[in-house]
Amino acid sequence: MIKISLLFFSMFTFLFSSNVSLQFTGVETEYINSKGEKKKITIEREIDPECMDIHIKNDVFWKGKYASSKVPKACKATFITSAGKVVFPIQIHKGIETYGEMEVMAFIKKMQRDSTMLFIDTRDEEWYEYRTIPGAMNIHYAYILKPKVFEEEYKASLSKLGIIGMKKPFDFSKARTILLFCNGAWCSQSPNMIKALLDLGYPPEKIKWYRGGMDDWLGLSMTTTRK
After folding, report:
1. Is-contact 117 99, C-beta < 8 A?
2. How does DSSP assign 165-226, residue by residue?
3. pTM (2 decimals)?
4. How many domains does the chain have?
5. Residue 41 maps to a domain
6. I need a labelling partner for 143 at 20 to 30 A (CA). Which of 9, 62, 71, 225 fits?
7. Does some domain include residue 74?
8. What is the mean pLDDT of residues 197-205?
9. Beta bridge partners of 98
């Protein structure tokens, strides 16, 4: 009994000494809404209390269309399963870390006091304004992929990223550590932007990728800018 108690205590200590605890304690940040207003928001797991008592069993989670009829309506959501196709592996490039939700929260938290870090939503403006992860800045992936088409946006984006110069060879001595995402594991926007940045010479160790994107973020009931 003592051994079991000690094991539980050590597991509990590990849980709350790591990034995992952030989903419960929350991470405060700011974002700019579609009206240009700065809003404060706390990122956390947003789960209805009624959902906390659901027993994790096969006949509840995986029966039929996955959610059993026994599960309260507040604990169920519908989503599209036919969107896109998964073509990118977990490790998109040697030297680039792939993040999960807890690493994203830790990045956002650290970013509050570190101006060398930047969280980037690579989708287009319409998607970004409709709903995004709080703390993310919008840099459309096409601005980096097509510099001749989006010349002014391209220059502005390089400046935001901390890249010095407007043509190769660029100076990356002040390049920011960036975390990119788009709609999900099936979305090619953030991977294509990462490839374009690498082609410019951006240091891979300064690039992080949230592969799950909005799909996984919403699937885990994480806070977004849309109420």
Report:
1. no
2. SSSSSPB-TTPPEEEEE-S-TT--HHHHHHHHHHHHT--GGGEEEETTHHHHHHHTTB--S-
3. 0.81
4. 1
5. yes
6. 225
7. yes
8. 97
9. 209
